[in-house]
Amino acid sequence: LLKNIDEPVELFALEINGPPRARPQVELVLPAEALAVLEQAAVAFMPLINASGDPRDHHLCDGITGDIISNLSRFRDLVVIAHHSVRRFRNVEPPLEQIGRQLGVRYVVNGSLQRTEHQIRLRVELTEVTSQRVVWSDRYDGALNEIFKFQDDVTSKIASRLAIQISVAEQQRIRSLAPPDLHAYGLVLRGQDLSGQFNREANLHARRLFETAVEIDPGYGRGYAAMSRSYNLDWRYAWAESPQTALDRAVDLAKHAIDRDALDARGFGALGFAQLYQKHHEESLAAYERALELNPNDADLLAETGDALTYSGLTTRAIELLKRAIRLNPYHPDWYLWYLGEAYFFRKDFEAAITTLKQMRDHSEAHRLLASSYGLLGDLANARRHASEVLRIHPNFSIDHWSKVPPNKDPSENEMFIAGLRKAGLK
Prior knowledge:
Elements: H1 32-37, E1 41-45, E2 49-50, H2 58-72, E3 78-80, H3 83-86, H4 96-103, E4 107-115, E5 119-128, E6 133-143, H5 147-175, H6 184-195, H7 200-216, H8 221-236, H9 243-260, H10 265-277, H11 281-294, H12 299-311, H13 315-328, H14 334-346, H15 350-357, H16 367-377, H17 380-393, H18 399-402, H19 411-423
Helix pairs in contact: 2-5, 6-7, 6-8, 7-8, 8-9, 8-10, 9-10, 10-11, 10-12, 11-12, 12-13, 12-14, 13-14, 14-15, 15-16, 16-17, 16-19
């Protein structure tokens, strides 16, 4: 033992001209309590293989591996094995089961880096350990003379897409379990799917799941953040008997989420979302700014921040963030395009708004903006067609209510939106 240090310390000896020695295989045994924690969506990003064979690229492989692990660690839903632990597996390729057992992970990412004279190529593959099923794979190409730009861009993209793919895989896994086996995280994931349907019954069902999640784990901030959004939707669509009470409740729950986990970016995102619809624009943008400080690669948060910027009159910056979100999450949900369409609409580029909104797979929530866009362009036939869809999907729609919903900082922007709806024949 070293003086005043009770814990064992790892020592190394450097033999300058000695014979090469075989790399020791260390069997890492995790205690039961650590394995219990890692039963969440734990992932190990294994050291990138230097496919070039040039020893000068070893450091580049190490640097990119470390950067991706650092970026992944910002996602609070993931347990990410530290760089130091995965470095044990550099230059060795044990079976997936061994990695899963030794590191206590459900997912493993393997990858390789290949450098040619002027180009660099990075390949990654995400695999579920138990089934050995490849969940996702991709490759990234860049120019060697822009290596630092490539490294920054690719680590952000890979981290974001891995988090998204693992979330999707977890949802599929959770759906296959019997209801009694669902834990708080699973309940929140299921509830978020329901909330995205934008109808009253699904939203109430989602809230019950969120309430159960926080009963199971009162300290789980994400459950409160999700519940906050369900109340925000109650306000937005006039589903609540007292809409203002629902919006106030959304703000309170978002603050509860932050109180329970001040490092979870989604809590600040929920607060920014609720404050936006209170028309507290500066506070909303500050909350989103804090969220992106905690996780600048969360594509959902980037898209939501873009929406808040749109309503604050900063449409150029909003479009930049929304396009970045789409790059990070190429299989994005429809609401990314909905928000991007809004940004074009309030920039008075109605043609771009229509083109963007038509790319949505489900146009249910696009019909309002499409009706207004066509109305303002004077295409009344298409405007009325979308207006009829608005009334079919939301029979309780009224101009009086929707004149108060969009939280534009500049009132004239909302007046323009309402004018388009009136031209489309909505009342």
